[in-house]
Amino acid sequence: MTKTRVEFRSDNCGRAAPELIEALVAANTDTELGYGGDALTATLQSRFSDLFEASVQVFPVPTGTAANALALAAAATPFGAVYCSPEAHIHTSECNAAGFFGGGTKLVPIEGPHGKVNPEALELAITTAGKGLTHKSQPAAVNLVQATDRGAVYSLDEIAAVSQVAHAHGLTVHMDGARFANAIARLGCTPAQASWRAGVDVLSFGVTKNGGLLTDAIVVFAPESATDIGFHLRRAGAVWSKMRFASAQIMAYVADDLWLRLARQANAAATRIAGQIESVAGVTIIAPVQANELFVEMSAATLAGLEQDGVLFYRRGPRLARFVCRWDTSEDDVAALVGSIVRHTAAS
Ligand SMILES: Cc1ncc(COP(=O)(O)O)c(C=O)c1O
User: Fold this and answer.
1) 208 lines ligand 1 (CB under 6 A)
2) Which of 64, 75, 166, 242 could form a Cys-Cys staple with 141, CB 3.0–4.6 A?
3) How far, in Å, is the centroid of ligand 1 from the Cα of 209?
4) Is the dihedral of CA 260, 262, 265, 266 positive or negative?
5) pTM score
6) Residues 202-232: pLDDT tens digits?
7) Does position 88 have pLDDT exceeding 60, yes or no?
8) Total domain count for the chain?
9) 176 lines ligand 1 (CB under 6 A)
10) Which domain holds residue 334?
11) Is the domain of 85 the same as that of 23?
């Protein structure tokens, strides 16, 4: 190994894209109204309406957790149930922010492959939920994570199938798009096709993980699904007072397809790694590598060997590793990870 530190822990560990830093500097002139009353935030609304080919509302927020929890709080009643994959970030990793900001909203896990929600399982869960019974949480929304927490990507038909079930029962469809760019880059479709045209009502639009800095956003396609969202955001302290700097980051992120170029780089690194390790004896890739993450089973000795080599990653089980590629993952990073895996599997 030539390097002592090979970073595959998270896309949060990467640098911010220089274009976003430059946009912050460029926005640092003159005076502007706070709380979104500025010119850049107004431009952001029309820019996103163009991007999504529909009239949308955009709310820049500090984190993906804020985007998810507050979008769902606006969509669900405090006695509502939100259906999601057992792997979903809102279920595993957000300290039940959705329940907290929702005032008691309950998360109900629905099985499905590779972090997806299975539409038949969703249908069964809703129809047996006890709609109208005061003893039961009332079906309110479904959460799809795109790309999923296992690195897979919902096809447009899969999104539409879940949305159809949800809408047939009056539920809101929320998409956690922390890695929406990676999914769009993979699908090669328009943002509209992968969101409202497939039935998504509200989207958590990720920026941070893909070259962003300090801001994600909520995009509302169906205003009736989020009528009070402004109050939820303000009460949670999730409205930037100097909003123009948040909006400047997001404007730069989508300018000239930067967001898709960055996502393609991250996805390509993951695809290269998968291609080079999939036939290595002792290595099993447990979920389709369709975005920028790999979930790989190896022996405990191999995992320990990687750590000794300075490869940084998270263990997701005694034999399971998660490797996350970033827009700035280098060829050297890829070669170092693959080399370490090949060497240690051969030795164990
Ligand atoms: C799928 C998914 N959704 C949401 C988030 C939340 O983002 P944040 O850590 O900015 O709150 C993450 C972060 O890891 C994520 O992986």
Assistant:
1) yes
2) 75
3) 8
4) negative
5) 0.97
6) 999 999 999 999 999 999 999 999 999 999 9
7) yes
8) 2
9) yes
10) 6-14+259-347
11) yes
